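hey so i finally got around to running the thing on that chain from the lab meeting. sorry it took forever, my laptop kept dying and i had to restart like 3 times. anyway pasting the input first so we r on the same page abt which one it is
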Amino acid sequence: MIQRYSLPLAVTELLPFLLSALGLFFIARMLKRKNEIIGELAYISAFLIIAGNLLGVAGKLLNSTKGSDTEWMSRSVFLLLAPGTVGLAWALWKGLRDRVTEMTAGQVWLLPLFLNAGMLALTAATKLVKGGRVWVTILLTVLTVAGVAASVQLARRALHHQQIVVAGLFLLSMVMSLTLNRMGGEGSSPEVAEWAKLVSNSIAQAAFAFAAYKLGQSESNT
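ok and heres what got predicted. didnt touch it at all, straight out
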């Protein structure tokens, strides 16, 4: 049976989406100010993540208005989220330094392109050979590892600026995001469980957006 989302739930999903997009913009802008090439990687990575999140929101809107089975859309988001998060984590690794030396495009782009190409090739091969949800598990694992790496780097940089609260917000956002997929609906209806996820995700993305803004301010003053 196809799970049907209510229209208010689907529309409210725009809130964490917009907060996440805002936070990603702050991060990309911060890196762009430090180095042009790293900033380009950050912006493109952020675009992939935003596009993936938007696909998920669109899937729920279609489900709530037309009752369509959008399971394929909820799985396909990882094809955008995983490469985008890998690219963002690498951009942070190269850019979150006191002094960013001159870098060539190859130094910035080569590794994330290689990693993402290998990941997508493995995903495609797994989908063809084994089918099922194994390919989703691969993408979700990469997304989780890259997301943790990005959040830890942001928290460390905040601590470098003695912003303990900001570092805590980055880590809070990371922990809440990691636990969202583990939230079940035991003892409650699927609709209640989805609202609980939505509230948690909104808090996580609000913390991320605020922390990204404050860190960007500190980086611009160095």
